[in-house]
Amino acid sequence: MSETTRTNEEKKLPLNGRRAIPPNNSNDEENEVPEMEAFGLIPRGFNPRDYLRVEDIYMFKEPNEINKQEHHTDKYYNPKLIVRRGQPFQIQIYFNRPYKPETDQFWLEYLMGRYPQQNKGTYIPILVGNELKPGQWGAKITHRENNSIRLSIMSSTTCIIGKFRLYVAVLTPFGILRTRRNSATDTYILFNPWCQLDAVYLDDEKEREEYVLNDVGIVFHGNVEDVKTRSWSYGQFEENILDACLFLMDKAELELSGRGNPIKICRVASAVINSRDDDGVIAGSWNNTYDYGVAPSAWTGSVDILLEYYSSKQPVRYGQCWVFAGVFNTFLRCLGIPARLITNYSSAHDNNANLRLDFFLDDEGKVDTRLTKDSVWNYHCWNEAWMTRPDLPVGFGGWQVVDGTPQETSDGMYRCGPASVQAIKHGHVCFQFDAPFVYAEVNSDIFYTKMEKNGTQVVESVDTTHIGQLIVTKEVGGDGMVDITEEYKFREGSDEERLALETAVMYGVKKQSTRDTTYQPQTDVDMDFQAQKAVLGNDFKVTITFRNKSRNSYTATTYLSGNIVFYTGVTKSEFKKHSFSAKLEPSSSSSFDIVIKSSEYMNDLLEQASFHFFVTARINETGKILAVQKATALEIPALRIKTKGELVAGKEMSVIVEFTNPLKQALENVTLRLEGPGVLRTIKKQLGRIQMNSTLTWEVKCIPMRPGFRKLIASLSCDALRHVYGELNVQIQKP
């Protein structure tokens, strides 16, 4: 190093009275390691060539070789060695002459970051011993032949996750000789769900294959009564994705020494996945305008988003909850943390975490949108990550909620989790992180409150079962849906549920009881509301049913408000108002149909074709109010995908995407996307317009790289129509 560069180096390091070494929070930066580290003056006749010298290191890093096979990392599209911690791996060292254990001494050095330190786990010297101890760094010789030795190396089960640089050091009487910096011997070390001593150990092989190794998944959306599905390509093994995921931790400035801890990694990742307050990966947009970006519904997977962020270092536009959750899932699975994507239907976004969502009614019993601040999301997606929680009492390990969607701040940043699912179920919301917020998302009650002229609030109706009525994830080994509601809450109305609620209140979740307010519901009349399933662009009907259980005749002044909403439950516009008087005969049921015409909703329709209906009815004889709300969504037509030609790895095949425009208008500025991990990289196509009733056909030629069961995923997006998807399972044969 010349004199000038050395003085520049010294200038660059700011003086800091608190720490001797600057923060070490970049996996990318390196220090210079001397090839000859002299112990003092070197005698004139010293020739390093006289001593044991490393000629070559063979890493067994091909996908079909022992290391990647045994460590379940053979799917990573990355030429370097990738291993999982706490499990032995092999390397072979070639010397310039046979190794003599009596006189020769060498050791390995693994380094990470700019300022490697042994006590921080960023400088790891490994001496060769006779045996490997489980869970600790070590190396032993398993094979000697001519000038080479084969080593089995064990990494620690608490080792930092990331990319290490490898050096081999040889001791000579006058100093240490090291191998040259060689990036081909860089070694990635990941979490190991197959190792019992690892914090992310998962004991079921089928679950490990799903939650760590599956690179496609399903997002459940729509609403409770009409669950819709779409596929999402996680692509955690695709080229450069591992480096992009490691970069996220650099971006979040997570100290390297903290990167062996899945709790810390999840916490910082939930902040860096969204762009709020740290210029993270994805910028959210919920207002139906997506200028200078991609509409959230158009993405088919995480790879494009992560690679764009990795190269531009700027937030990628735009995402909504399933996009944040899809990318977060890729990040977790890529690093080896078992993860799954969760959908909570009728998810409460409670602005003051008091376990009640207030919907204010005006004099006529209509919902007052000015006063109502809380909203019910038709669905909300988050992730669960699997890990032990040594920071909590026994029993709260296992699945942890982590959420990258920016909803509320936690410790000053938009992030959420990890929060123990078990703690949420039992109401132990005192345990970090953000359990009260998640508890409210799945457990709040809806209060319909009337504001009197004098400012008092009268509770007209309470709905205790609407929020969090269905929580689901994809089944292990298939595309079906699993209902996991009971993992988050006890059955509605059970003693255990009441106890969990009391526990949550004791630990500081605010809950106003209905006793504080005057509330006597009308018990002898029930009201129900159903919407007919309909395809986008068609008329459909909704039905309001009253059941009068009393012996009295009643009349009910009924008011229906139909709103076009974002999937977050926020209203864009009211498109239907209808009021009528219903006569309720004693001990009988009566139904009333209302027709919703396509001309009433088509102009204002938002991309998920979601409606939200409020129905309120005032029983004139008693003055009591009945209230019910329901979300419903139209069927959006799908894309059709088919293949042509032989489906064989390494051979050309065609993928054909077809779509028929169902609307009574032409579609403008249409974008199509198609991807399939292992078959083809994402391809985009822009189209000017598709006339009404006309069919578009798009053919793409590709050469699938990997044999096995694969999924093709396509999306179509334009201003008038979004959330149009198609998918196809294909079996790629071996050549």
Polypeptide structure, described:
The protein is mainly beta and 735 residues long. The chain has four domains: 36-190, Immunoglobulins (Immunoglobulin-like); 211-507, Alpha-Beta Complex (Coagulation Factor XIII, Chain A, domain 2); 525-633, Immunoglobulins (Immunoglobulin-like); 640-732, Immunoglobulins (Immunoglobulin-like). The protein is 14% helix and 40% strand. The protein has twelve helices and 40 strands. Strands 1, 2, 3, 4, 5, 6, 7, 8, 9, 10 and 11 form an eleven-stranded mixed sheet that branches. Strand 7 (138-145) and strand 8 (148-154) form a beta hairpin. The longest helix has 15 residues, at 321-335. It is elongated and about 110 Å long. Residues 1-13 have low confidence and may be disordered. Its cofactor is Ca(2+). Its EC number is 2.3.2.13. One of its GO terms (molecular function) is protein-glutamine gamma-glutamyltransferase activity. One of its GO terms (cellular component) is extracellular region. InterPro entries: Ig-like_fold, Ig_E-set, Papain-like_cys_pep_sf, Transglutaminase, Transglutaminase-like, Transglutaminase-like_sf, Transglutaminase_animal, Transglutaminase_AS.
How does CATH name the architecture of the largest domain?
Answer: Alpha-Beta Complex
Question: Looking at this structure, what is the CATH superfamily of the largest domain?
Answer: Transglutaminase-like
User: Ends: how far apart?
Assistant: 53 Å
Average residue pLDDT: 90
What is the strand tally? 40
- Low-pLDDT runs of 5+ residues are 1-13
CATH topology name of the largest domain: Coagulation Factor XIII, Chain A, domain 2
Give the overall shape, derived from the CA principal axes: elongated
| CATH class group of the largest domain | Alpha Beta
Percent of residues in β-strands: 35-45%
Largest sheet: 11 strands, mixed
Number of helices: 12
Number of domains: 4
Helix content: 10-25%
Rg: 31 Å
> Could you say which structural class the secondary elements and strand pairing correspond to?
mainly beta
InterPro entries: Ig-like_fold, Ig_E-set, Papain-like_cys_pep_sf, Transglutaminase, Transglutaminase-like, Transglutaminase-like_sf, Transglutaminase_animal, Transglutaminase_AS
Region (Disordered): 1-32
EC number: 2.3.2.13
Biased composition (Basic and acidic residues): 1-13
